[in-house]
Amino acid sequence: MLLVVALIAAASVLAAAAFTGGMDGTRLRGSAKEIAAQLRYTRTQALTTGAPQTFVIDPQAHTWQAPNGRTGDIPADLGIAFTGARQAQPSAGEGAIMFFADGASTGGRVQISLKRAAWNVDVAWLTGQVKLRRAEAVSR
Question: Closest Cα to residue 79, out of 37, 135, 123?
């Protein structure tokens, strides 16, 4: 009886890993969620302080920066693509999304990808709303 329960548990774990993309899928989704959370934090800081706040991402270095000294790394095996306003770009190779005191932003998209799977983190320019959704990786 215990052997049957153990086999069912093992099969369940393997099935769950297959359906969710395993560890790679978990890292990909986790990185996208972290970027989305930091963008929301940056927008909240702009609303509460009444001053523009900027989120900066460096796709080559796999790093990001948010207000109040928040920084982070994105795993090196994940692809990063940024689309946004050129006027907000702090330097060549970096991307930035600026949030204003009224919640609006310069808008943009950060895509985190691995193989053919990807997650888009979209920021609406008019409202500053941050949305996270599954996508297909952009081929380069």
Answer: 135
CA–CA dist 45, 38 (Å, integer):
10
Work out whether the CA dihedral 57, 52, 104, 44 comes out positive or negative.
positive
Q: What is the pLDDT of residues 104-114, one digit of tens each?
A: 999 999 999 99
* Cα–Cα distance measured from residue 106 to residue 115, given in angstroms and rounded to the nearest whole number: 29
Q: How many CA atoms lie within 13 A of 42 on its CB side?
A: 32
> What ranges make up the beta strands (E) of the chain?
53-58, 63-66, 70-73, 79-84, 95-99, 108-114, 117-123, 130-136
In angstroms, the CA 7 to CA 11 distance is 6
In contact, 120 and 108? CB cutoff 8 Å: no
Tell me the whole-structure pTM to 2 decimals: 0.82
